[in-house]
Amino acid sequence: MEAGFNNTTYNTDYYDDTGLQDDGHMNFIYYVVTCIIISISLPLVLVTIYALLSLVRQGQVAPIYVINLLISDIIQLCCMIVFVSDHRTLMTDDVYSCGLLSSVGFMVCISLERYLVIVHPLWYRFKRTIKISVAVCAVVWAFPVCFLIVFPLVTDTVTIILSIILIIPFPLFIFFLVRTLRALSSSVSVRSDEKRRIVGTLVVVLLIYTLLFLPTIIRFLLQATGFYSSMFFYTSSIIVRLSPLADMLLYIFIRKQIMGNCLASVCCCIKESNDPTTSAVTVDDI
Q: Is the pTM of this model over 0.85?
């Protein structure tokens, strides 16, 4: 890969020659948070992938995109391990960038799949095959690699192009959610629990992208204009590294049983808190 893009990724994503390495306090927090994320996320992601594989064996298509999303999270976590072990190289930076871009691509696939289930059910029913899903996953994996190889050869403004590419999914997520909500409002064939799962998936994807990825995109755009803030750099970098943990929330909306148990628990808690009889008994016991 071209050195120009490697230097850009290296400086904008993790280090900067204007003084980031001298900020020892923030760097220590950055290091500790990264270690915590790795220790919690890595075992949970592996267990979640194993659980989702059983759904794929049953012929379900949706878990394929979630599994690939979690695989991209594993790539990011492995790169984080290299980062905190002080064996960082330009190649690990590029691999981490590939994992990050791939995770965005699979988030789009998940939202699109949920959107097609409701808005275009007939088309989705005939096109919903594991082979097509695997082909889509192959394209998503290939795009970051091609981007890292081709764009540095034709332009020097890689950061701006990367920011534009990363901002495109944001309006798509909003569009998928709004159109799905409109379709569900007039749909009588979809069960209420299925509606909650679909809307929940779209909302979680939108929230993950808004809260975790959008700050990094804004940082890229600001740095392209020459603006730099050490605090904003570290904050946005820590936030985006929380994505492997946040992505596992999608597993709740893929598994019907887990989703039902969560909703039942919430409803029971609300019912108990609003039940005056229960409150009176509790007070008397005290």
A: no
